[in-house]
Amino acid sequence: MSSAPPGPPSRARVAAATFVGTAIEFYDFYLYGTAAALVFGPVFFPEFSPVAGTLASLTTFAVGFVARPLGAVLFGHFGDRLGRKRMLVVSLLVTGGATVTVGLIPSYAAIGVLAPVLLVTARFLQGIGMGGEWGGAVLMATEHAPAGRRGLYSAFPQSGPAVGFLLGNLVFLVLNATMPDEVFRSTGWRVPFLASAVLLVIGYYIRVRVNETPIFQAVLDRRHRARAPFAELLRHQSRVLLLATLSFILAHALFYTVTTFVLSYATGALGVGRSTVLTAAMVAVAVMGVLTPLAAAASDRFGRKRLCLAAGTGAALWAFPLFWLVDTGRPVLITVGMTGGMVCFALLYGPMGAFLPELFRVRYRYSGASFAYNAAGIVGGGISPLVATALLAGTGTSAWVSVYLLLIALVSLASVVALGETKDDDFADGLEPETRDETPPQR
What we know:
The chain is mostly helical. The chain has helices spanning 8-38, 40-44, 50-81, 84-104, 108-111, 114-131, 133-142, 150-178, 181-188, 190-207, 214-221, 229-268, 274-302, 304-326, 331-358, 365-395, 399-418.
């Protein structure tokens, strides 16, 4: 196989594969968060109180985040040994298959305790598949990018999650508006999960047609693969891995606090209608979807670190106003509060598509970027809605949820400060096809 860099048509195909693929997979993953906040409590945990049922359903939501680092290690190992393309196809199949399965699981009323057991199993498999998605997609994009444009190219997969979220919420919004509540809670919520089968076929067709990245192809051609990528990562860049993970917790915490906890909090404790909060979330994520690629591209000019620091500072300042606005119960102010959180998220998430891969050497880049991203998700995404719900239940005020977000923002800021700027680093580690250098530079 030729190791020459693919021409523009191949790069256009890479853009489509990374954008459409992440949109589909994050559609799958976000569906679960929306359903967990709205219906999973009474469907799968009907014997619990409303608060306990919400906590139980959010706990199954968290299972996916616990599984994601395991998926990152698994997919990272084979992605660093066999290639980025193969793992992207497999991750799509695993995540999509698990999503369709969720839509087929009978309720607790039908099969008893087996229902939540099957739900947790499907969520775990979904998390395993997602563990390989983001890292593979951003590597596929950035390792095809021309010099000085890695941020821009990373914008393709970084834009996919917003589209996936909007698509999933739009389906729930339409179903909520067109179905009686009883029908929605019994069968209607299953429609978005089953519809994932169609998206799975589309995503598979697009991804099997993409080329392997020229940078990793050079690794294959020169037989420079790591035998145990994750072990090598821990041996050589454990400090970078820790800082990268801590720096990204804020992104997950912002997104899932705004889109999952606020959805549950506003519809439950505040009594705001589902359609109102879903619409507010869609507006906020739409703004995020526009700003994310702009921030990614801007990082090529201003640097990854500078934008990430601005995002962390903004999140720290917005932690209290976010819930002051939501607590009013007024649709416009709820939307403003959620949108402000998503603006901070976009400023951090956009540059991270290039920043995290640039921190790690080619030999174990898939492992490093994937693990940092997904390990951060355990605290930021999986645990944050649980912590927020528990804090609210224990104190009766959203102020402590704001304190929690503020602390995470400070941790993220400190971690980014400790990391170096990477936008001008040698991304190929001296392993371009035309060189004979076999030794990766130190980072």
